Amino acid sequence: MMVSFSCNADGYDPLDPNGNITIRWDVLQENDDTTQDVRISIVNYQLFRHIELPGWKLSWTWPGDEVIWTILGAEATEQGNCSAFKGRQLPHCCEKQPVIIDLLPGAPFNNQAANCCKGGVLSSMNQDPGKFLAAFQMHVGSGSNNGSLPGIPGRFNLGLAGYTCGEPFQVPPTKFVEDQGRRRTQAFATWNVTCSYSQFRSSSAPTCCVSLSAFYNETIVPCPHCSCACQTQAGSQCVKPGELPPVLQLPHNEPPKPVVQCSNHMCPIRVHWHVKLSYKEYWRVKVTITNLNYVKNYSEWNLVVLHPNLRSVTRVFSFNYKPLNIYGNINDTGMFYGIQYYNDMLLQSGENGNVQTEMLLHKDPGIFTFREGWAFPRKISFNGEDCVMPSPDDYPRLPNTAHFLHAKPPSSFIHLLLLLLLVV
């Protein structure tokens, strides 16, 4: 029988500077029948990249003939061939390479474990600190009665595009807190597996782009041509105005490839940055995120912006905002994300397929300017994916006279002033 622990682990670093996902393998108990109770935790230490539906699918390769007898908080997708166990209860999984998925929210209580049952979805540490950890427990043993304990598996895989996992390495045993912090216990042994992310491994093309505009220029700078794909490119799928997306033809057992509105950039996500107003001591920006994908909603989306004036953000409307001091005290990066139950879901392409905010920023003396494209962001990412920016040469320019910044008195007033001086 599996031992169920309801305590919380405090052995995790508060913030991993590498921004990785860590798989932690804790041996909680070794039993006389050469079985073990283990707890597996998946911890998302990334600052703003989260795991969306359909969620993680954790797999590994056993070193021998190990089997999973029982499991809490997750389940194996395949039981495998358990014909060697005749006349007794069959193991939960006999696969050499089991694939484990998270239980859905609302799973039966007697199947749950602490920090389970999120459907494989993990938030980032900044966006929702209560949902960046997933965990489940297993009772594992050897498939043959050779009297040996189960070994530590290898070749871990999260089942997520862009992620690569290393080999397990032993670390100090994880400590657990009980009785409201008055008692500590610890695992028999602990191994960590580090999984890193690469956008180039995740996708061969970008997934978002940025367009720009400003109140002082009539030019709207669109997303660069073919930012994410070209309409004539093989495999590109887009929907022209008046057409219906081929929803019924899409696969239902795997994430569908984007089906987007036909455009020059062919990106599922477009971010528009508009310099809206200029006051005496402040300036105002409007940001609009538009979902052009007909087959996907973006839950718990986030937008990360790099701009030197973000250190002087005065107010943000309709979005949550957190500064990201990635480089020590340099506060030029911030994360925007939706308000729960209001606009934290970016719906698929249509009338409601956009979210927008406005923010008020203070004009820092000696730094602020509208010239040379300074008012536009240096970098933008959506859900952790870098967006394609327009060329700086194309940014909206100030008019040559720049009347709104340096208002000059009319010439008739100057002539009158000179006349008065002559008379005096």
What is the compact description of this entry?
This protein has helices at residues 199-202, 411-423, and strands spanning 8-9, 21-30, 36-44, 57-61, 66-72, 74-76, 99-102, 133-142, 154-157, 163-165, 169-171, 175-178, 183-186, 189-197, 208-214, 217-221, 238-239, 260-261, 269-278, 282-291, 298-299, 302-306, 313-317, 320-323, 333-337, 345-346, 354-362, 379-382, 385-386. The protein has 424 residues and is mainly beta. The chain has two domains: 8-200, Immunoglobulin-like, CATH 2.60.40; 203-241 and 258-394, Immunoglobulin-like.
Describe the protein's architecture and organization:
There is one protein chain. With 424 residues, the protein is mainly beta. The protein folds into 2 domains: 193 residues, Sandwich (Immunoglobulin-like); 176 residues, Immunoglobulin-like, CATH 2.60.40. The protein contains 2 helices and 29 strands. Strands 2, 3, 5, 8, 10, 11 and 14 form a 7-stranded antiparallel β-sheet that branches. A 6-stranded mixed β-sheet has the order 16-15-19-20-27-23, with no helix packed on it. Strands 24-25-22-28-29 form a 5-stranded antiparallel β-sheet, with no helix packed on it. The longest helix has 13 residues. It starts with 7 loop residues before the first strand and ends with a helix.
CATH C-level of the largest domain: Mainly Beta
Number of domains: 2
- What's the rounded overall pLDDT mean? 86
**Structural class category:** mainly beta
**Count of helical regions:** 2
Strand coverage percent? 35-45%
- Main sheet makeup: 7 strands, antiparallel
